[in-house]
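Two proteins, back to back. First:
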Amino acid sequence: MTLRLSKLFGMDIYTDRAEYKGKIFDLVINLEKGRVETITTEALRARSKQEAKKIISEKSIPYSKVKAAKDIVIISGVKAEPVKEEEDQHARILHRRMH
């Protein structure tokens, strides 16, 4: 699937069970791997590492869950999961940028 990143911003996100999850607000890109890692549905403005973890875990969707993107984004069912090591790393990076 090929799509311009700029087209993703503001797109509605739905699960494959037609549950609305929000709009794409931002993207976390892994420059070393050359791929989008995470979609966020809220601004990544964190005052603490704890707050950054909360945003990453509750207001973000792993890009690997994206099944299709054209007029809307469809993701496979997303369940609340514990924060993974990679998400913890994103939270640390986000917290450093904010301070």
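And the second protein:
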Amino acid sequence: MASGLILAEIRALGSLLDGNLQSKDCPPINPETHSTSFVNLPNKITFARLVLTIVFIAATSWGTTSGHLVALIAFILAAASDWLDGYLARKLGMVTSLGKLLDPLADKILISAAFIYFSYKGLCPVWITTVIIAREFLVTGLRQIAVEKGQVIAADSLGKWKTTFQLTFGITALVWLISSCDHHQGTLQQNLKLLSHPESILFLVSLWGAFGLTLLSGWNYLSQSRNLLRE
């Protein structure tokens, strides 16, 4: 499923870039200016998040406490980069069509990989993971339709909150996987274990909050795109 999602986003990106290059109203491209806007600092940070996702996937495959620790560090850095690239893009005036497509793509790959793993570890119901990934396919399809019509659908506020809850759940679940396997615990480790326990308020609120916002944001995208679907 994740591979299909990635391919769909790449096709959408290719269609957008191809359309921009062939547009009659598009002025000749200055190689230096194009290079700067295409691979600017926010986009480099987004690319780094894709690399961190690979590190996350590799670390979880170890199935050890140290592997989960590496996965947690990679996940936290990826979560921080999700905020940083968007902030810099707006602050420095470097918002690009590539960034609007690449940023949610990087989020989807990370979140899909994480929730699939958490379902495998029994921390998240499979049906919730299915709904979350299905929502990403829905938004990807809507973005593909929008690109073909010369439009770009950027992430909305509900989508940002959805991602925040998903990332919070991911960090909480990884902390639990680490702390539950550590039998030599001090006060800090014990508190983290209690905080991240699958029956704790933080765990349940982040999980069900992520699920609820996934449904709401998916419906919001669908509602906003109804004119595209009617054409």
